[in-house]
Write a structure and sequence with these properties.
Helix content is 65%, strand content 0%. It is mainly alpha-helical and 447 residues long. The chain has a domain of 169 residues. The longest helix is centred in the C-terminal third of the chain and has 27 residues. Keywords: Coiled coil.
Length: 447
Amino acid sequence: MTDNDNTILETCIGVINSKLPFSLININNSNDISIDFIKHRIESYELFLVEIQSLLLDHSILDHQLLWLQSLITLNKLLSVIKLCSKDFLLVVNHGPAINDKLSQFKKRVVGLSIEFLKQDQKLLKKFIKEYQELFQELLNVLKAEELSTTEDFDANILNVIKIILESNYNEYFITIINFNKTIYYLNQSSFLILLPPSYLFAFITNGKIRLSEFIDFYRFTSFNLLSVGQFQEAKAYFKILLDNPTIKLSFYNEENLLIDNKREDKLINLVQRQEISLMYILNYLLSSTSYQNIINSSNLYQKELQFLNKSLSNLLTKEIHQAASQPGSRHSSVLSFQSLTTNNLKYKTHDYLSSIIYDGSYKTKLHNIVEITDVLINFNLPIFFDKCFTIQSSTSYSNCLKQIAKSINQLSLQNLKFNQNLQIKSINDLVDSQINIFKLSKLLNE
């Protein structure tokens, strides 16, 4: 940037700050947060939003890009902080819905302004990289902040607009791309994935341009998103690099470490996140298998990940049961519900991404649909596996994925049987669609 650019930027910041209500200054440093605190900040933010909208209305985007850019950074950043401060109050029956409605209105207006701005020709993208990175990050923070379950979905156009910009400027914004791919996964919007080659980040990790945690997240969420959109073969390369990383090897999560808090700060990936990686790798391994032999003679890595997930999650669920028994009413237990939440039907909005069962699933759901399923796979008891998958009543991304796996294995089994016994089967797909499994078919053939 030139000195003139800096001067213009500082002038824009000065104009925006002159309209900032006192109560919104240093809001990040507030320790005493009450319902009155939240209400006052919401009122102040609404006044500030009206002031900024009026300011931008008088200044066209093409002629005043820096003013728009800095205004949107400030609006998104303040909204993100207020939403974070308001999180716990959303579940308070007398205040939560009203607070949520106000914040949702703000989000809709700010996201709308952001779309309007970003759709224009961004002449300053390569000159004000730091500022654009901040805008994208604050926008993503607003989109992923906690809301009530009744909140309407945001305008997904914002993700498409951001994606178009980042894809065209990936060398300057690769860190932002990592955060973007992470956000879209947890918002169940994997179709917006920005795909970079598996080897793209190797040079950056060696020259210190990215942190190891960002390196891991790149492969973690690229593989998760690819799996979620059905690109199983493509996901394999990213899973391989991810699991080859020595900082997340399974020996770091042995039984002794399971006795320690699963959110230890000295781990780049905590226990629950490591279980999520195992689960997603297992799903992709099964879905990417192209022959029955791949499943019968599965890889050592698959077996290790399978056994780790089964044992560690089983131990963790047992630990949670014991904690729930000693701390009745704990809102942190996966087997007990937050009493006021249940009574008043106020719940946080959840997104049905593929591994959400790891974080949001109840004790019973995780026991039946992960621990028991992995038990069956370890013992390679496919008849029970088929029955469990095809009889799951829920219709979530995860349960549908299990049914897809059962169908795939069933088809590979039938193809293998047809090849070995030279059967004249006209349509394997018809057999698969009718959910007949290989063992029932084999029994019929032998009668």
